[in-house]
Q: What sequence folds into this?
């Protein structure tokens, strides 16, 4: 006998997006889809303990939600219009076969991450519609008032409806750009968890990193051939593997060179490495997530920081710079260059980035560390002060303060 | 579904002839592909007159209703099945007229 409570939690995790997506397709209205799905799960919570868990929970939830949606449409006395509308939406030409599984969830993801929506709205919609997080959960995750988050989602849904943001696979011409858009949303969610902002917030938010990984896994299932999807998943796994080793018991950031490598999650490392190898074996030119994943694979392959193959790391960064010449990539490349060619060479590179990165804490933290290694304590102290002032993460600020106070 | 593509500009100059030619090519395409509803370029904002007849007497005021650096220089009204198509056309329209554009859906129902 399966525990009903456990069954509903599991169904929520596995079926929420499918139920919302099926309803969105049928009724052409995200609001109705979301509300009816939530009602169906609430009915499940009430009934399953007494009636038993249905043999196919997903089908039961979809049927129940469908019924609820129709009830609502009848209630609103808009039945004819809505059904006509639903007809129009489902009569869209069938999506071209793109090597991807034709799954309603994929359409829903592309709708939620549509470029005509503001980034924060994309993030919120994705967590609500695909992730199944509740409004209070999303508000808490992004440290905004529930009412603010509610308005954000309502406004986004209204725009989707009024401007007719379509609910279908992007055209083949657009697909690559639209997939990048989806991945950017997922990476943002992950990073907000991994380097949480707010000095009174937990420095690492495992709930957000886990959710980002879960959603990226889902997209990987739906688009198994896409190299960047695989790359992003590998990047997240190899980063997540180090999560617990990255913060000390006293809540201080532990940098890569000081981490207890035995505390890394070896299952995640193995899975990440497998994905990176799989992409390498295709022989196809990697995109930025695949290169970032490969860099992380080099780091996680070394048993000791001294065993790190820095020449490989720098080579990968060179490849990345040619794809994305952003100053932040150049800064990270310089950190690897310091290990290969020494801190003096690296400092010269970093100093050239001042115009672009003067307001970025990591620029000052990197300079501080390089100056410290060069024995230029006074300048290093000034750079640490600046980095601490700009750091938005509590564990990072604690780490930087300790390093500053250790200067001779 | 119809969309308004507003052409936004911040200088008081007219499109040079090469831009006009590009706009013509784009307009032809809109017509051939069945997206064309209407389009036009507008006179400069200082040629506008504001009328307020909500009260007892109509009040005429010289000048645009809102003073801003950026102004509406022209527009297209297009027919498109959804926002993706409208955005694709607006992207090409922006290139053709060499101006920033805004896409807004007309209200339905």
A:
């Amino acid at each position: 006998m399966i525990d009903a409570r456990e069954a509903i939690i599991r169904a929520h995790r596995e079926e929420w997006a499918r139920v919302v997506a099926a309803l969105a397709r049928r009724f052409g209205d995200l609001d109705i889809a979301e509300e009816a799905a939530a009602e169906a799960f609430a009915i499940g919570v009430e009934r399953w303990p007494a009636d038993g868990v249905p043999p196919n929970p997903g089908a039961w939830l979809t049927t129940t939600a469908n019924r609820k949606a129709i009830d609502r449409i009848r209630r609103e006395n808009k039945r004819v219009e809505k059904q006509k509308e639903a007809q129009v939406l489902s009569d869209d030409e069938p999506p071209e076969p793109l090597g991807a599984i034709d799954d309603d969830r994929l359409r829903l993801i592309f709708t939620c991450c549509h470029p005509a929506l503001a980034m924060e709205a994309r993030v919120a919609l994705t967590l609500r519609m695909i992730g199944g997080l509740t409004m209070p959960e999303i508000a808490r995750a992004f440290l905004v008032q529930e009412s603010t988050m509610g308005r954000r989602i309502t406004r986004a849904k209204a725009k989707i409806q009024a401007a007719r943001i379509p609910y279908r696979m992007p055209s083949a011409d657009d697909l690559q750009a639209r997939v990048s858009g989806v991945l950017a949303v997922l990476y943002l969610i992950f990073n907000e968890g991994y380097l949480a902002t707010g000095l009174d917030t937990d420095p690492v938010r495992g709930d957000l990193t886990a959710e980002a990984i879960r959603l990226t896994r889902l997209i990987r299932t739906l688009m198994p051939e896409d190299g960047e999807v695989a790359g992003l998943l590998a990047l997240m796994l190899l980063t997540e593997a180090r999560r617990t080793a990255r913060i000390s018991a006293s809540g201080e950031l532990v940098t890569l060179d000081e981490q207890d490598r035995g505390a890394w999650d070896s299952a995640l490392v193995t899975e990440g490495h497998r994905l990176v190898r799989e992409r390498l074996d295709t022989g196809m030119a990697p995109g930025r997530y695949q290169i970032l994943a490969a860099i992380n694979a080099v780091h996680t392959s070394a048993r000791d920081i001294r065993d790190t193959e820095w020449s490989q790391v720098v080579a990968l960064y060179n490849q990345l710079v040619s794809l994305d010449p952003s100053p932040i990539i150049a800064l990270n490349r310089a950190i690897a260059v310091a290990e290969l060619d020494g801190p003096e060479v690296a400092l010269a590179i970093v100093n050239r980035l001042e115009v672009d990165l003067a307001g970025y804490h990591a620029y000052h933290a990197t300079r501080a560390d390089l100056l410290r290694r060069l024995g230029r304590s006074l300048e290093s102290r000034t750079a640490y002060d600046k980095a601490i002032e700009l750091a938005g993460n509590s564990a990072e600020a604690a780490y930087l303060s300790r390093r500053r106070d250790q200067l001779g | 579904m119809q969309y308004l593509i507003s052409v936004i500009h911040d200088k008081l100059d007219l499109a040079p002839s090469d831009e006009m030619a590009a706009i013509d090519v784009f307009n032809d395409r809109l017509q051939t592909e069945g997206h064309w509803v209407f389009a036009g370029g507008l006179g400069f904002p200082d040629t506008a007159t504001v009328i307020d007849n909500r009260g007892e007497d109509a009040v005429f005021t010289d000048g645009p209703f809102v003073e801003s650096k950026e102004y509406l220089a022209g527009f297209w009204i297009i027919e498109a099945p959804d926002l993706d198509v409208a955005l694709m056309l607006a992207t090409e329209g922006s290139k053709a007229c060499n101006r920033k554009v805004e896409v807004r859906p007309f209200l339905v129902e």
Notes: Chain A touches chain B through twelve residues (CB under 8 Å). The CA atoms of residues 131 and 215 of chain A lie 7 Å apart. The radius of gyration of chain A is 24 Å.
